[in-house]
Amino acid sequence: MAEDASELARRLAREAEAVCRHYLSNGRREGRYWLVGDVNNTPGRSLFVRLHASSKGPPGKWTDAATGEHGDLLDVIGTTCGFRSFREIANEARRCLKLPDWQREPAIDAEAARRPRNSTRAARRLFGMAQPLPGTLGEAYLAHRGIDLSVSTDALRFHPRCFYRPDGAADVETWPALISAVTDLTGRITGVHRTWLDPEGFDDRRLGKAPIDTPRRAMGDLLGHAARFGITDDVMAAGEGIETMLSLRTVLPSLPVAAALSANHLATLLWPVTLRRLYVAVDADAAGINAAKALTVRALDAGIEAIALCPRLGDFNEDLRAFGKAQLRDMLRHQLLPGDDARFLDVISA
Asked: Does pTM top 0.70 for this prediction?
Protein backbone atom coordinates (compact mmCIF):
# COMPACT_ATOMS: atom_id res chain seq x y z
CA MET A 1 0.00 0.00 0.00
CA ALA A 2 2.83 2.41 0.85
CA GLU A 3 4.45 1.77 -2.53
CA ASP A 4 1.12 2.40 -4.26
CA ALA A 5 0.74 5.71 -2.39
CA SER A 6 4.24 6.93 -3.24
CA GLU A 7 3.86 5.93 -6.90
CA LEU A 8 0.51 7.73 -7.16
CA ALA A 9 2.00 10.81 -5.51
CA ARG A 10 4.87 10.80 -8.02
CA ARG A 11 2.48 10.44 -10.95
CA LEU A 12 0.28 13.27 -9.67
CA ALA A 13 3.37 15.43 -9.19
CA ARG A 14 4.28 14.98 -12.85
CA GLU A 15 0.87 16.46 -13.70
CA ALA A 16 0.88 18.96 -10.82
CA GLU A 17 -0.53 21.98 -12.64
CA ALA A 18 -3.41 20.00 -14.19
CA VAL A 19 -4.22 18.46 -10.78
CA CYS A 20 -4.20 21.90 -9.15
CA ARG A 21 -6.43 23.40 -11.84
CA HIS A 22 -9.00 20.68 -11.16
CA TYR A 23 -8.93 20.27 -7.37
CA LEU A 24 -7.73 23.75 -6.35
CA SER A 25 -9.71 25.64 -8.96
CA ASN A 26 -10.01 28.79 -6.84
CA GLY A 27 -6.26 29.36 -7.09
CA ARG A 28 -3.97 30.48 -9.86
CA ARG A 29 -0.49 29.84 -11.16
CA GLU A 30 2.25 32.30 -10.33
CA GLY A 31 5.68 31.40 -11.65
CA ARG A 32 6.67 27.91 -10.49
CA TYR A 33 3.85 27.67 -7.91
CA TRP A 34 0.08 27.30 -7.65
CA LEU A 35 -1.36 29.68 -5.05
CA VAL A 36 -4.67 29.24 -3.22
CA GLY A 37 -6.11 30.02 0.19
CA ASP A 38 -5.86 26.59 1.81
CA VAL A 39 -6.13 22.86 1.12
CA ASN A 40 -9.94 23.18 1.14
CA ASN A 41 -9.73 25.25 -2.09
CA THR A 42 -10.59 28.54 -0.39
CA PRO A 43 -9.67 31.61 -2.49
CA GLY A 44 -6.48 33.29 -1.32
CA ARG A 45 -2.68 33.04 -1.44
CA SER A 46 -1.61 31.28 1.74
CA LEU A 47 -1.05 27.79 0.37
CA PHE A 48 1.48 27.23 -2.41
CA VAL A 49 2.03 24.04 -4.43
CA ARG A 50 5.38 23.51 -6.14
CA LEU A 51 4.72 22.75 -9.82
CA HIS A 52 8.28 21.90 -10.87
CA ALA A 53 11.32 20.40 -9.20
CA SER A 54 13.72 22.98 -7.84
CA SER A 55 16.48 23.33 -5.27
CA LYS A 56 13.69 23.74 -2.70
CA GLY A 57 12.24 20.31 -3.36
CA PRO A 58 10.26 18.03 -5.71
CA PRO A 59 7.03 19.00 -7.49
CA GLY A 60 3.60 18.26 -6.04
CA LYS A 61 4.49 19.27 -2.48
CA TRP A 62 2.47 22.03 -0.79
CA THR A 63 2.84 24.21 2.27
CA ASP A 64 0.30 26.47 3.95
CA ALA A 65 2.25 29.52 5.13
CA ALA A 66 -0.52 30.49 7.58
CA THR A 67 -0.79 27.17 9.43
CA GLY A 68 2.51 25.44 8.68
CA GLU A 69 0.65 22.42 7.30
CA HIS A 70 2.25 20.60 4.37
CA GLY A 71 1.61 17.54 2.24
CA ASP A 72 1.31 16.22 -1.30
CA LEU A 73 -1.37 16.07 -3.98
CA LEU A 74 -2.96 12.95 -2.50
CA ASP A 75 -3.76 15.07 0.57
CA VAL A 76 -5.28 17.72 -1.71
CA ILE A 77 -7.53 15.14 -3.39
CA GLY A 78 -8.58 13.59 -0.08
CA THR A 79 -9.45 16.95 1.51
CA THR A 80 -11.20 18.62 -1.42
CA CYS A 81 -13.25 15.49 -2.19
CA GLY A 82 -14.03 14.72 1.45
CA PHE A 83 -12.67 11.16 1.30
CA ARG A 84 -11.90 9.25 4.49
CA SER A 85 -10.17 6.09 3.22
CA PHE A 86 -7.00 5.72 1.19
CA ARG A 87 -8.85 3.45 -1.24
CA GLU A 88 -11.24 6.30 -2.11
CA ILE A 89 -8.35 8.74 -2.49
CA ALA A 90 -6.33 6.28 -4.57
CA ASN A 91 -9.22 5.49 -6.90
CA GLU A 92 -9.93 9.20 -7.39
CA ALA A 93 -6.24 9.81 -8.11
CA ARG A 94 -6.19 6.93 -10.56
CA ARG A 95 -9.32 8.27 -12.24
CA CYS A 96 -7.60 11.64 -12.57
CA LEU A 97 -4.54 9.92 -14.08
CA LYS A 98 -6.69 7.65 -16.25
CA LEU A 99 -5.42 4.52 -14.48
CA PRO A 100 -7.53 1.48 -13.45
CA ASP A 101 -8.89 1.32 -9.89
CA TRP A 102 -6.53 0.04 -7.20
CA GLN A 103 -6.90 -3.62 -6.33
CA ARG A 104 -5.08 -5.54 -3.61
CA GLU A 105 -2.37 -7.70 -5.17
CA PRO A 106 -2.08 -11.33 -4.03
CA ALA A 107 0.87 -12.19 -1.81
CA ILE A 108 3.99 -13.22 -3.72
CA ASP A 109 5.06 -16.84 -3.35
CA ALA A 110 8.83 -16.46 -2.94
CA GLU A 111 9.61 -20.01 -4.11
CA ALA A 112 7.41 -19.61 -7.18
CA ALA A 113 9.07 -16.30 -7.96
CA ARG A 114 12.46 -18.04 -8.06
CA ARG A 115 11.37 -20.72 -10.53
CA PRO A 116 12.13 -20.16 -14.24
CA ARG A 117 9.08 -19.07 -16.18
CA ASN A 118 8.19 -18.59 -19.81
CA SER A 119 8.47 -14.84 -19.24
CA THR A 120 12.20 -15.32 -18.63
CA ARG A 121 12.64 -16.87 -22.07
CA ALA A 122 10.51 -14.10 -23.57
CA ALA A 123 12.69 -11.52 -21.81
CA ARG A 124 15.84 -13.03 -23.30
CA ARG A 125 14.29 -13.05 -26.76
CA LEU A 126 13.27 -9.41 -26.43
CA PHE A 127 16.76 -8.36 -25.35
CA GLY A 128 18.25 -10.35 -28.21
CA MET A 129 15.94 -8.66 -30.73
CA ALA A 130 16.74 -5.16 -29.47
CA GLN A 131 19.48 -3.10 -31.10
CA PRO A 132 22.59 -1.49 -29.63
CA LEU A 133 21.95 1.84 -27.92
CA PRO A 134 24.21 4.28 -29.85
CA GLY A 135 22.38 6.58 -32.26
CA THR A 136 18.90 5.65 -31.00
CA LEU A 137 16.08 7.42 -29.18
CA GLY A 138 17.13 5.42 -26.10
CA GLU A 139 20.55 7.08 -26.16
CA ALA A 140 18.94 10.51 -26.56
CA TYR A 141 16.59 9.79 -23.64
CA LEU A 142 19.45 9.01 -21.28
CA ALA A 143 21.46 12.00 -22.49
CA HIS A 144 18.53 14.31 -21.78
CA ARG A 145 18.46 12.89 -18.23
CA GLY A 146 22.09 13.97 -17.81
CA ILE A 147 23.51 10.42 -17.92
CA ASP A 148 26.99 9.88 -19.36
CA LEU A 149 26.59 7.10 -21.94
CA SER A 150 30.21 5.98 -21.63
CA VAL A 151 29.52 4.34 -18.25
CA SER A 152 28.78 0.66 -18.85
CA THR A 153 25.61 0.69 -20.90
CA ASP A 154 26.18 -2.84 -22.27
CA ALA A 155 23.13 -3.94 -20.29
CA LEU A 156 20.98 -1.45 -22.23
CA ARG A 157 19.49 -1.76 -25.71
CA PHE A 158 16.77 -0.09 -27.77
CA HIS A 159 13.68 -1.51 -29.48
CA PRO A 160 11.90 0.80 -31.95
CA ARG A 161 8.53 -1.02 -31.77
CA CYS A 162 8.18 -2.77 -28.43
CA PHE A 163 4.75 -4.21 -27.62
CA TYR A 164 2.73 -2.49 -24.90
CA ARG A 165 -0.64 -3.76 -23.68
CA PRO A 166 -2.66 -1.20 -21.68
CA ASP A 167 -4.10 -2.56 -18.44
CA GLY A 168 -7.33 -4.41 -19.12
CA ALA A 169 -7.05 -4.00 -22.90
CA ALA A 170 -7.15 -6.79 -25.46
CA ASP A 171 -5.19 -4.98 -28.16
CA VAL A 172 -1.50 -4.16 -28.02
CA GLU A 173 0.27 -0.98 -29.06
CA THR A 174 3.86 -0.46 -30.17
CA TRP A 175 6.15 2.22 -28.77
CA PRO A 176 9.91 2.71 -28.86
CA ALA A 177 11.51 1.43 -25.67
CA LEU A 178 14.72 1.38 -23.70
CA ILE A 179 15.40 -2.28 -22.83
CA SER A 180 17.48 -3.11 -19.76
CA ALA A 181 18.80 -6.59 -19.04
CA VAL A 182 18.09 -7.98 -15.56
CA THR A 183 20.77 -10.47 -14.55
CA ASP A 184 21.73 -12.78 -11.72
CA LEU A 185 25.14 -12.80 -10.03
CA THR A 186 26.65 -14.90 -12.84
CA GLY A 187 25.55 -12.42 -15.51
CA ARG A 188 22.77 -14.67 -16.84
CA ILE A 189 19.76 -12.72 -18.11
CA THR A 190 16.72 -13.53 -15.99
CA GLY A 191 14.42 -10.70 -17.14
CA VAL A 192 14.20 -7.29 -18.75
CA HIS A 193 12.93 -3.86 -17.81
CA ARG A 194 11.17 -1.77 -20.45
CA THR A 195 10.90 2.01 -20.44
CA TRP A 196 8.59 3.07 -23.27
CA LEU A 197 9.65 6.38 -24.79
CA ASP A 198 7.89 9.28 -26.45
CA PRO A 199 8.77 9.27 -30.17
CA GLU A 200 8.16 13.03 -30.19
CA GLY A 201 11.17 13.48 -27.92
CA PHE A 202 11.97 14.77 -24.45
CA ASP A 203 9.93 17.27 -22.44
CA ASP A 204 10.12 18.45 -18.85
CA ARG A 205 6.71 17.01 -17.93
CA ARG A 206 7.10 13.35 -18.90
CA LEU A 207 10.91 13.41 -19.05
CA GLY A 208 10.91 11.54 -22.34
CA LYS A 209 8.62 8.68 -21.33
CA ALA A 210 5.72 7.66 -23.58
CA PRO A 211 2.27 9.18 -22.87
CA ILE A 212 0.82 5.89 -21.61
CA ASP A 213 -0.49 4.75 -18.22
CA THR A 214 2.48 2.58 -17.21
CA PRO A 215 5.58 3.55 -19.20
CA ARG A 216 7.79 1.26 -17.07
CA ARG A 217 7.35 -2.50 -16.73
CA ALA A 218 9.56 -5.47 -15.93
CA MET A 219 9.19 -9.10 -16.93
CA GLY A 220 10.95 -12.34 -16.10
CA ASP A 221 12.54 -13.73 -12.94
CA LEU A 222 13.24 -10.58 -10.92
CA LEU A 223 13.49 -11.56 -7.25
CA GLY A 224 17.01 -10.90 -6.00
CA HIS A 225 18.23 -9.84 -9.44
CA ALA A 226 18.95 -6.42 -10.93
CA ALA A 227 20.07 -4.35 -13.88
CA ARG A 228 23.81 -4.34 -13.16
CA PHE A 229 26.44 -1.89 -14.40
CA GLY A 230 30.07 -2.71 -13.68
CA ILE A 231 31.66 -5.83 -12.18
CA THR A 232 31.28 -6.04 -8.42
CA ASP A 233 34.14 -7.13 -6.19
CA ASP A 234 34.27 -5.77 -2.63
CA VAL A 235 32.25 -2.54 -2.98
CA MET A 236 29.03 -1.72 -4.84
CA ALA A 237 26.02 0.57 -4.72
CA ALA A 238 22.38 -0.53 -5.02
CA GLY A 239 19.16 1.38 -5.50
CA GLU A 240 15.79 1.28 -7.21
CA GLY A 241 15.73 2.99 -10.60
CA ILE A 242 17.95 2.51 -13.63
CA GLU A 243 18.26 6.26 -14.18
CA THR A 244 19.07 6.75 -10.49
CA MET A 245 21.93 4.27 -10.53
CA LEU A 246 23.26 5.41 -13.90
CA SER A 247 23.36 8.92 -12.44
CA LEU A 248 25.70 7.62 -9.75
CA ARG A 249 27.82 5.92 -12.44
CA THR A 250 27.97 9.23 -14.29
CA VAL A 251 29.87 10.87 -11.44
CA LEU A 252 31.45 7.68 -9.99
CA PRO A 253 32.18 5.70 -13.19
CA SER A 254 34.29 2.99 -11.50
CA LEU A 255 31.71 2.22 -8.80
CA PRO A 256 29.69 -0.91 -9.71
CA VAL A 257 25.96 -0.35 -9.28
CA ALA A 258 22.77 -2.42 -9.34
CA ALA A 259 19.25 -1.16 -10.07
CA ALA A 260 16.68 -3.43 -8.40
CA LEU A 261 13.81 -1.72 -10.34
CA SER A 262 11.42 -1.27 -7.39
CA ALA A 263 11.36 -0.78 -3.65
CA ASN A 264 10.13 -4.33 -3.02
CA HIS A 265 12.90 -5.85 -5.12
CA LEU A 266 15.57 -3.62 -3.59
CA ALA A 267 14.83 -5.11 -0.18
CA THR A 268 15.52 -8.64 -1.55
CA LEU A 269 18.59 -7.89 -3.72
CA LEU A 270 21.33 -10.52 -3.80
CA TRP A 271 25.03 -9.63 -3.67
CA PRO A 272 28.24 -11.55 -4.43
CA VAL A 273 30.13 -13.38 -1.68
CA THR A 274 33.10 -11.04 -2.19
CA LEU A 275 31.11 -7.97 -1.13
CA ARG A 276 32.40 -6.17 1.95
CA ARG A 277 30.73 -2.76 1.68
CA LEU A 278 27.34 -1.76 0.24
CA TYR A 279 26.24 1.78 -0.52
CA VAL A 280 22.45 2.01 -0.53
CA ALA A 281 21.00 4.78 -2.74
CA VAL A 282 17.85 5.95 -0.97
CA ASP A 283 14.78 7.20 -2.86
CA ALA A 284 13.26 9.96 -0.75
CA ASP A 285 9.76 8.53 -0.31
CA ALA A 286 8.20 6.19 2.22
CA ALA A 287 8.58 3.04 0.11
CA GLY A 288 12.15 3.88 -0.85
CA ILE A 289 13.21 4.65 2.70
CA ASN A 290 11.66 1.43 4.04
CA ALA A 291 13.28 -0.67 1.31
CA ALA A 292 16.68 0.92 1.97
CA LYS A 293 16.31 0.15 5.68
CA ALA A 294 15.40 -3.48 4.95
CA LEU A 295 18.39 -3.94 2.62
CA THR A 296 20.69 -2.28 5.15
CA VAL A 297 19.56 -4.63 7.93
CA ARG A 298 20.13 -7.67 5.69
CA ALA A 299 23.60 -6.45 4.78
CA LEU A 300 24.58 -5.76 8.37
CA ASP A 301 23.28 -9.16 9.45
CA ALA A 302 25.55 -10.70 6.78
CA GLY A 303 28.57 -8.84 8.12
CA ILE A 304 28.62 -6.32 5.26
CA GLU A 305 29.19 -2.64 5.97
CA ALA A 306 26.16 -0.66 4.76
CA ILE A 307 26.18 3.10 4.13
CA ALA A 308 23.22 5.17 2.95
CA LEU A 309 23.62 7.59 0.04
CA CYS A 310 20.90 10.24 0.32
CA PRO A 311 19.86 12.60 -2.50
CA ARG A 312 18.99 16.20 -1.89
CA LEU A 313 15.79 15.88 -3.97
CA GLY A 314 13.72 12.76 -4.71
CA ASP A 315 16.52 10.63 -6.21
CA PHE A 316 19.98 11.01 -7.70
CA ASN A 317 18.76 11.59 -11.24
CA GLU A 318 16.71 14.54 -10.00
CA ASP A 319 19.88 15.79 -8.29
CA LEU A 320 21.96 15.30 -11.44
CA ARG A 321 19.49 17.21 -13.61
CA ALA A 322 18.97 19.97 -11.05
CA PHE A 323 22.56 20.56 -9.88
CA GLY A 324 24.84 19.08 -12.56
CA LYS A 325 27.74 16.63 -12.37
CA ALA A 326 30.21 18.75 -10.42
CA GLN A 327 27.81 19.59 -7.61
CA LEU A 328 26.46 16.04 -7.37
CA ARG A 329 30.05 14.79 -7.17
CA ASP A 330 30.71 17.16 -4.26
CA MET A 331 27.50 16.08 -2.53
CA LEU A 332 28.57 12.42 -2.79
CA ARG A 333 32.14 13.14 -1.73
CA HIS A 334 30.89 13.84 1.80
CA GLN A 335 28.85 10.63 1.93
CA LEU A 336 31.55 8.17 0.80
CA LEU A 337 33.98 6.68 3.28
CA PRO A 338 37.43 8.32 3.19
CA GLY A 339 39.09 5.42 1.37
CA ASP A 340 36.32 5.23 -1.18
CA ASP A 341 36.24 8.95 -2.00
CA ALA A 342 39.86 8.66 -3.18
CA ARG A 343 39.22 5.32 -4.90
CA PHE A 344 36.20 6.39 -6.92
CA LEU A 345 36.35 10.18 -7.14
CA ASP A 346 40.00 10.41 -8.16
CA VAL A 347 39.13 8.55 -11.35
CA ILE A 348 37.00 11.56 -12.36
CA SER A 349 39.43 14.28 -11.41
CA ALA A 350 42.48 12.56 -12.92
From this structure: no
